[in-house]
Every structure is written in structure tokens, then in C-alpha cells.
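Reply to dn_fold:

You asked what the input looked like. This is it:
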Amino acid sequence: HLSQIILTALPFLLVSFVQRKAIFTFVIDRLMLIIMLFTVLISTSSSGLISLIILLCIFSLISYLNKICSIKLIVSSSIFISFIFTTVYLSNPIIQSFLNEMLFEKLATGSALERLYGITTGWSYFLQYPILGLGWGVVTSHDLIVLILANSGIVGFLTFLAMVISLISDSMNRVKVLREITFIDTKSLFI
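and this is what came back:
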């Protein structure tokens, strides 16, 4: 769960890094970014690592689209990092064994079955108590939607959905206003 929490905060720190605007201070932001990236890497959470890779791909794409870095830099950095990780993995049997056990052979350990069991149990509780659920914190699940449905039912899910839609709508309105302000300021410079 730690990786999920960290991955929630990472986009804010990455945006702060790209825009060169501090959330706290320049040093604290960079230090937090490094600590969070390192923590996800050593957490042995396969979903955390996959999410981190996806996040970094999206970050690279946004950086390219905003002309912060070139596609050559992104591709060459990706190839270099992949080469380093592959070389370390293939040349060191201790690291290879560790990564195999913690990441690549999780199905053999029962971790995936445990998670699947939690999700199916949560879904069955939702089907038994669809309106209000069992009460928050009663059911644990590794799936956010099933977790909300099992614990707070349709009422809680609709409340959650309304909150998400409100946040997205508010964010889109703010972006629209910022674009209009930027356009007006840019236009006024030439008058």
C-alpha cells in the first residue's frame, strides 16, 4: 500500500520539477522526489514498479510535448537505463534471485491468489449489502472500486464518483481560465 500512496504524490513533485516551481522548497521537493522514487523501487511491489514505469512514460511524453526535452534524449535515456538494469540483472545472481522471487514469480507465492480472493470476497459482500455496504474499513480489497462498493455500497460509490467528477470538472475549468489569462497577457504584450 505504501507504493500506492507514494505514487499518488509523485505526479505533483514531477510537475514541480518540470515547472521549476517549488511546492515546499526547491531542496525539500527534490529530496522528497528522490526518496519516493527510491522507496517505490525497493518496495518490491510489482504494481508499484509498473505504475512508476507508466508514470515516467507519461512524464516523458508531457516533457516532449511541452518542449522540455527532445525525443532523442528520452529514447537514449530509456535505452541506457534499460541496458544498465539488464546488465545488473544478468550479471549478479543475488540480484537476479531477489528480483525473480519478489517480482517475477509472485504467482507461485500465492500473492496474486490472495489479492484475487480479497477482490472476489469484497464483491460478494457488495452483492449481499448493495445499498450501504458493510461499513467503512470492514472489508479489505486490493481494488479501489470493489473496496468502496463493499464498504459503503452504491451510496458511497456515487458519493465518491460525484467527488471525482467535481474535481475533474473544477480542474478543467481552472485550466480553461489559465489558458484565457495566458492568451490575454500574451496578446496584450503586442498591443
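Residues 184-191 have pLDDT under 50 and may be disordered.
Hope that clears it up.
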